[in-house]
Design goal:
The chain is an all-alpha fold and 307 residues long. The chain has a domain of 206 residues: Orthogonal Bundle (MetI-like fold), CATH 1.10.3720. Helix content is 64%, strand content 0%. The protein is globular and about 75 Å long.
């Protein structure tokens, strides 16, 4: 009777997970086809919008709508938009609100998440419960409107920032990431005499660049695209952000002064001006995203491993 024993020093190869195995040629072809279709679905509308905004009036009129084949390029639609202060002022308002709001929201979220990631912190459980409760309950539009009005924030830029200054989702993501930082690192810093502020600034934040960049991107895109709060709280049209201008003109088809004042025979068509406003609204996100996208996988997935 013989006994089968494995040779010393030899280990059986570990079985790969299905998603780790090398795909077959048919699988590679299918994946390539799906990715190509997704890219076309994303870039196709963007190409059409940009081309229509750059097309002269004759090309837009001949196409009867959105332009698919280029036939001449002109910047007249953009000149027409920026000839009046409506859009240019709205761009400045959106830029200021986005920068200030992102800085405030990211700072408050980091501070809240770090305190909630430290067991035994002041009011740890009640505050954590309140944050998690925000996933289920929302106070509603009317109570928030009454609160903003009662605080005297109507027609103020603060009404575009403070009501949405903190996102419970972002706080939970940051907290989960901070909890993954080894406690030994923080304990060694405390032994060396570092306080909580110094630990946060010198150790935690440098180790959390990925998740902080992702959360900042979330806040920035949210502030840049926000129009509902401006419609509720801002009555002065000179303080409207670009997103509300985009909605009023492109969606509701309300005329802008730049589209009606001083119009000459070579003025761009209304559709070209609408598409130019869309391009102006989308352009900042397209410029910033490539610098942040490399952090998305690490920032979101690693930050959501531990709750």
């Amino acid at each position: 009777m013989t006994t089968l024993t494995s040779r010393p020093g030899r280990r059986r190869p570990a079985r790969l997970a299905p998603w780790e195995e090398r795909p077959s040629p048919a699988g590679q072809l299918g994946k390539g086809t799906i990715v190509t279709l997704i890219v076309l679905a994303v870039l196709g509308p963007l190409y059409t919008i940009v081309l229509t905004s750059l097309s002269p009036a004759a090309t837009v009129n001949r196409a009867g709508g959105l332009v698919l084949v280029p036939d001449g390029i002109t910047l007249e639609a953009y000149r027409q938009i920026f000839s009046d202060t409506v859009v240019s002022r709205a761009v400045l308002v959106s830029t200021g609100v986005t920068l200030a709001g992102t800085l405030i929201s990211t700072g408050v979220s980091v501070l809240g998440a770090y305190s909630l990631s430290r067991p035994g912190s002041f009011l740890h459980r009640p505050l954590l419960f309140s944050i998690l409760l925000m996933f289920v309950f929302f106070p509603g539009i009317i109570p928030v409107y009454l609160m903003v009005s009662g605080l005297g924030l109507k027609d103020s830029y603060w009404s575009l920032i403070l009501p949405t200054a903190v996102s419970a989702f972002n706080v939970v993501v940051l907290r989960s990431f901070f909890m993954n930082i080894p406690g030994e690192v923080l304990d060694s810093a405390r032994i060396d005499g570092a306080g909580e502020w110094r630990i946060l600034w010198r150790i935690v934040l440098p180790m959390s660049k990925a998740v902080t960049a992702v959360v900042s991107m979330f806040y920035a895109v949210g502030y840049w695209n926000a129009w509902f709060n401006a419609m509720l709280y801002i009555d002065d049209t000179r303080r409207w952000p670009l997103a509300l201008i985009l909605r009023q003109y492109v969606v509701d088809s309300n005329p802008l002064p730049a589209a009606t004042a001083g119009v000459t025979g070579d003025a761009p068509p209304t559709l070209a001006i609408k598409m130019a406003i869309v391009v102006i609204a989308v352009l900042p996100a397209l410029i910033i995203y490539p610098f942040v996208q490399r952090h998305f996988t690490k920032g979101v997935i690693v930050g959501a491993v531990k709750g």
